[in-house]
Amino acid sequence: MEELQGLQVYKFGGASVKDAAAILNLCRIVRDFGPQGPLVVVVSAMGKTTNALEEIYDLAYRGEDYSAQLGAVEAYHHRAATELHSYFAQPDDTMVTQLPNYFQELHQTLQSINSVGSYDEGYDQVVSFGESLSAYLVTWALGNALPKQVLYNGALVATDTTWREGRVDWVKTEERTQEALHGLLNDWRGRVMVTEGFVGQVQVDGFTSTTTLGREGSDYTAAILAYCLRAERVTIWKDVAGLLNADPKIFPDTVRYPEISYRETIEMAYYGASVIHPKTLKPLADRGIPLYVKSFLDPAAAGTVIHECQHPALAPAFIRKTDQCLLSFASKDFSFISEENLAVIFSALAQAKLKINVMQNSAISFSVCVDFSERRVHQLLDLLREQFTLHYNTGLMLFTIKNYDAASIQQLTTGRALLLEQRTRSTFQFVCKA
Ligand SMILES: Nc1ncnc2c1ncn2[C@@H]1O[C@H](COP(=O)(O)OP(=O)(O)O)[C@@H](O)[C@H]1O
Ligand SMILES: N[C@@H](CC(=O)OP(=O)(O)O)C(=O)O
User: Fold this and answer.
1) 13 C-beta closer than 6 A to ligand 1
2) Chain segment 136-180, per-residue pLDDT in tens
3) pLDDT of 232 over the 80 cut
4) Which helix H or strand E contains 328, and what residues bound it?
């Protein structure tokens, strides 16, 4: 195992690369605040590109016209490319003139899509372009902004063929990251390597195919690479001051946690604190790698450090998940919700790729709250209709209060009719109408 002393991983999400000005800010952060030693920069697609590509893919899959939407994505990237190019005043405009090649390839990929093939497999081939485009622009901009060599490396994470939710093959990923670094090791120090977040690769019948790690999976990529490279630390650059006790876009008067343990953070992310992808923490905790959450708007500010630590009681954390669906299954023959019944329900949930956010059972009925997806819920209903009477309710919200007290429960529940409620010693959760 080759170790790179002092290696760090920076992850820049969609908001921090949303346009040319944001990419230039990223360059300043790396230049003025970056480490002396080697740095891996993981980037997400620019702004809301992934949403746009999802829409384009959906149209293509249904055989509908997507040219206007694709044109808008191309124009958006072209604008950023020309602005970056004119900022650095480079005589060579290859970076801008080569950009249409990506769109040519994307167009060809979209044309090869037909509704007979697996929706999820095609999705990964298309949606991953967002990260390729942003890595291309960021590599070029960093190369011009820094006095050191900046290299690009394609997605390093090896997965299985679970399309849209690739499961990491840790052994292969470690081999691939090692291999990628070998060629660079001679004078790796002082170098910066840019790579795509969110995207993985898998070998199918001897061909390499693209996978993705699940929406918002770039934080996870940063953690996977840090784990494989035994990095000293990971920093994710966000548009907030750090990890707060609630999303400031939803809740007023938030407070920042200057320091917080892996365990507390894993739970917050699991319950839906969308600032960190829930899978990010485990690889880091396994190797004791600290995770810094810092503001790209104020890079000198302290942010939050997430690591192994003891801390006094934390301010209650508020988490809201929208677009929830409450499903209830009642046995048709009045048999109890037994282990056998539950096994059937759980297996169907797994098959339909529906993840349980909360569950509760009574004598003959079982309820689960899941993120709503019409396609997946219908698949589930088809699987279970024969054995169970099913009801579902959509357009709901799931609230979680971690480290709750009476005041925080009152603050959130007042005036709301609760459809489901659950409490442990540290966590209070309820489902209600939006
Ligand atoms: N507990 C929290 N602390 C801070 N931000 C939070 C929290 N929960 C949700 N957020 C939201 O997470 C956003 C940043 O995460 P995200 O949008 O995924 O960033 P990016 O895609 O740029 O990596 C913030 O703008 C904020 O609205
Ligand atoms: N671009 C992908 C992956 C990602 O992690 O993005 P972000 O870092 O902007 O959340 C998505 O939107 O799902």
Assistant:
1) yes
2) 999 999 999 999 889 999 999 999 999 999 999 999 999 999 888
3) yes
4) strand 317-331
Atom of ligand 2 nearest to the CA of 51: 12
Ligand 1 centre from 275 Cα, in Å?
A: 3
Residue nearest to ligand 2 atom 11, measured at CA = 216
DSSP collapsed to 3 states, 293-317:
EEECCCCCCCCEEEECCCCCCCCCE
Q: What are phi and psi of 193, to 5 degrees?
A: -115, 130
**3-state SS class at 135:** helix
Residue 246 in contact with ligand 1 by CB distance below 6 A: yes
Task: Assign 385 to helix, strand or coil.
Answer: coil
Structure token digits, residue 338:
């037994």
CA 259/CA 321 separation, integer angstroms: 24
ipTM over 0.90: yes
Alpha carbon of 415 to those of 123, 393, 412, 433: distances in Å? 41, 20, 8, 11
Torsional sign, CA 116, 118, 123, 125: negative
**All domains of the chain in start order, with CATH:** 8-238 (3.40.1160.10), 317-433 (3.30.2130.10)
The pLDDT value recorded for residue 284 is 98
Q: For ligand 2, atom 4, which residue shows the shortest CA distance?
A: 216
Residue 137, pLDDT score: 98
Examine the pLDDT at 332 and tell me if it is beyond 90.
Answer: no
Which residue from 238, 268, 296, 400 has its CB within 8 A of the most atoms of ligand 1, so it is best to mutate?
A: 238
Pocket around ligand 2 at a 6 A CB cut-off: 13-14, 44-45, 50, 130, 197-198, 215-218
Pair of tokens at residue 88: 């650095």
How far is ligand 2, taken at its centre, from the CA of residue 406, in Å?
36
Relative to the alpha carbon of 16, which ligand is closest?
A: 1
Q: What is the pLDDT of residue 115?
A: 72
How far does residue 363's CA lie from ligand 2's centre (Å)?
41
CA-wise closest residue to 17 among 42, 43, 37, 51: 43
334's CB contacts (< 8 A; 6+ apart) are 364
Say if ligand 1 is within 6 A of residue 240 CB. Answer: yes
Contacts with 37 (C-beta within 8 Å, 6 or more apart), sequence order: 4, 5, 6, 7, 8, 189, 190, 232
